[in-house]
Design goal:
Pathway: Glycolipid biosynthesis; glycosylphosphatidylinositol-anchor biosynthesis. This is Phosphatidylinositol N-acetylglucosaminyltransferase subunit C isoform X1. Pfam families: GPI2. It is a multi-pass membrane protein. There is one protein chain. With 273 residues, this protein is mainly α. The chain is built from nine helices and two strands. The chain has helices spanning 40-46, 48-68, 74-94, 102-122, 128-145, 157-172, 178-205, 207-225, 230-254; strands at residues 30-31, 261-262. A two-stranded antiparallel sheet has the order 1-2.
Length: 273
C-alpha cells in the first residue's frame, strides 16, 4: 500500500491532524529576503546630514548670543547673509539646479523688516526663562521633524520650519533693536529654509564636498560656540562624535540580529478595506 502524502490544500480531506506539517515544510523557509543591509561607510556618510542640522542649530543660538552682547552688529550679519545667499544661488546655477526665486526672497525680506518692531515686543510679557525653555523645545522639534532623506512618517518640513521661525521670534524679543530682530529672523530663514535645500544639492553633486561641508560646519560651529560656553562646545564635539561614529557603528553591529523569516505558510496581511 502506497504512503499517503500530505498536501498543502484545504479542499481535500486528509488523514492528518490540523496542525500537521511534513518534514519538508521548512525547506522553503528563507531569512531576510527583502532586508537591506547597509555597509559601515554608507551609514557614516548618511549620518552627516544629522550632524549638519545640529551644527545649524548651534550656529543659530551662537549668533543670538553675539547679537545680544553686541559683539556682532546686525549690519554685518545682514551683509554676511546676503553674501551667503549670492554664493548659494550662484552654486545652484553652476550645477544646473533651478535657481531660488529672488523676487520671493525679496518679498519675504521686506515683510520681515516691516513686522520687526512687532516681533520685538511680541513676547515681552513672557519671562526670559520661559522663552529659553520654549526655544529649546522648538529647536528639538526642528531636529525631530527635519527631513534627513530617510522618508520616515514623522518627517514634516512644515513643522520643522515653523518651529525654527517660532524659536527665532522668541529669542528675537530679547534683542535690543528692531534691526537686530530683522537680521536674526532672516538668519533663521536662511539657515532653516534655504540652507537645507542647498545641502541636498551638494550631497547629490559630490559626495566628497558633502563630507567636507559636514566637517567644516562642525569645526566652525564649535569655534563659534566656545566663547559662549566651553561646556556647550565640548558637548557639541561629543555629539558630533556620537552621531558620526558611535551610533553608525552601533547600528551596523545591530544588523546581525535582523531575522525576518519567509516560508510556505500563509502570512497574515492587514487590509485597510
Amino acid at each position: 500500500m502506497s504512503e499517503i502524502k500530505w498536501c498543502k490544500v484545504l479542499y481535500k480531506h486528509q488523514p492528518f491532524e490540523d496542525n500537521y506539517t511534513s518534514k519538508t515544510f521548512l525547506d522553503e523557509m528563507e531569512k531576510n529576503v527583502n532586508t537591506k543591509i547597509y555597509d559601515l561607510p554608507r551609514i557614516i556618510f548618511e549620518s552627516g546630514v544629522v550632524s549638519q542640522q545640529l551644527s545649524s542649530i548651534c550656529l543659530f543660538v551662537s549668533v543670538f548670543w553675539y547679537l545680544e552682547v553686541k559683539i556682532l552688529s546686525p549690519i554685518n550679519l545682514l551683509f554676511a547673509l546676503l553674501l551667503c545667499f549670492c554664493i548659494g544661488v550662484s552654486f545652484r546655477k553652476v550645477i544646473g539646479k533651478k535657481g531660488i526665486g529672488v523676487s520671493s526672497c525679496f518679498i519675504v525680506s521686506s515683510f520681515v523688516f516691516a513686522i520687526s518692531p512687532i516681533l520685538k515686543t511680541l513676547t515681552k510679557s513672557i519671562s526670559t526663562d520661559t522663552i529659553y525653555a520654549m526655544t529649546t523645545c522648538m529647536l528639538l522639534a526642528n531636529m525631530l521633524f527635519q527631513d534627513y532623506g530617510a522618508g520616515a512618517a514623522i518627517v514634516s518640513k512644515v513643522i520643522s520650519l515653523n518651529t525654527s521661525i517660532f524659536a527665532a521670534v522668541c529669542l528675537g524679543s530679547r534683542l535690543s533693536s528692531s534691526l537686530q530682530v530683522y537680521a536674526f529672523v532672516m538668519l533663521a530663514v536662511e539657515v532653516f529654509a534655504l540652507f537645507p535645500e542647498l545641502r541636498k544639492d551638494i550631497k547629490c553633486w559630490c559626495r566628497g564636498a558633502d563630507i567636507f561641508l559636514t566637517e567644516i560646519m562642525a569645526i566652525f560651529t564649535t569655534l563659534l560656540l566656545a566663547p559662549v560656553s566651553r561646556i556647550a562646545a565640548c558637548g557639541l564635539v561629543l555629539a558630533h562624535f556620537m552621531i558620526t561614529f558611535f551610533f553608525p557603528i552601533w547600528m551596523y553591529r545591530l544588523q546581525r540580529y535582523k531575522n525576518n523569516i519567509h516560508g510556505p505558510w500563509d502570512e497574515a496581511r492587514i487590509s485597510n478595506g
